[in-house]
Structures are given as C-alpha cells and as structure tokens.
Specification:
The chain is an alpha+beta fold. The chain has 5 helices and 6 strands. The longest helix has 16 residues. The protein is elongated and about 65 Å long.
Length: about 150
C-alpha cells in the first residue's frame, strides 16, 4: 500500500478492525518512510454485476451512479451524509443479495426509491421525477397521490 503523503510503498498495518457496516475492514497504517498514519478500508470483492439499462445495453454495476442520484435528490435536505451512506449501503446489499449476475436498471431504481421513501419524502419525489421521467404535471401529481396514500 502506498503512502498518500510521501508515495512510498513501505507501510505497515498498525490496527485492524471491522468498520461500522460490518462489511468492511478498517486498517490503520503507518508509513515507515515519513512516519505518518493513514486509514484504508478493505471490502470483499463481489461477483461483477451487470446492469441492463433501459435501451438494453449492458454495463458493469457502478455504486457511484446511485450515490450521485441520491445526493442530487437529497440536495439541501437536512439529512446527514452518514444516513445517506447507510441508505445506499442498504440498497446495495439488497441488490447484491439477489445473487443475480444481471439486473435491470429499473429494479435498482425501484429499490433505491423504496429506501428514499423511508428516508425523506422530498428526496423520494425528486428522485422519482428524474427516474420515472415525468413528462407533465399530471404524471407528477399521480406519483404524489401514490405517496400520500
């Protein structure tokens, strides 16, 4: 592991423990060259998941796409980043627990929307408006009515 401060590759693990999500290992490292400490996280490598997009093209699953969409939906909402990350972790766990090699993007979108619905109503509506590509106010109102039921 390279030191982020001096770029030397002679570092050693000083402390190792499970991270808060219990799916990641948190390692505290010490650089032998410069003496600075830094933290790394290790995650078990999973089987590559292929996402089938709306136009039937396929691409490898990318968590950052979910993060970007959720962060846009939660923009200027009073939701702690820790809570958002936990929600994304929960959605990702649900996606990978299906144990499928390929998954439709609309399944991922529905899982994320269900999690957002529990988290924040405004963020849910924002995400749904982009995800479901509302064409006019009536379709938007139909979605709001579903939420209020």
């Amino acid at each position: 592991m390279r030191c982020p401060f001096c770029n030397q590759d002679n570092t050693r693990v000083v402390d190792s423990r499970p991270a808060e999500d219990n799916c990641t290992i948190r390692r505290r490292r010490l650089c032998d060259a410069c003496g600075k400490r830094f933290t790394t996280f290790e995650k078990v490598e999973t089987i590559p998941l292929i996402v089938i997009k709306k136009d039937q093209t396929r691409e490898e699953y990318d968590r950052s796409k979910i993060e970007a969409g959720v962060m846009r939906a939660c923009y200027k909402r009073a939701i702690p980043i820790q809570t958002i990350n936990e929600m994304i972790d929960s959605a990702e766990m649900e996606i990978f627990n299906r144990e499928e090699k390929e998954i439709d993007s609309n399944v991922i979108g529905e899982i994320v929307m269900d999690k957002l619905k529990e988290l924040d109503a405004v963020a849910y509506v924002r995400f749904a408006s982009v995800y479901r590509e509302f064409k006019d106010v009536n379709t938007f109102m139909d979605e709001l009515k579903k939420f209020l039921e």
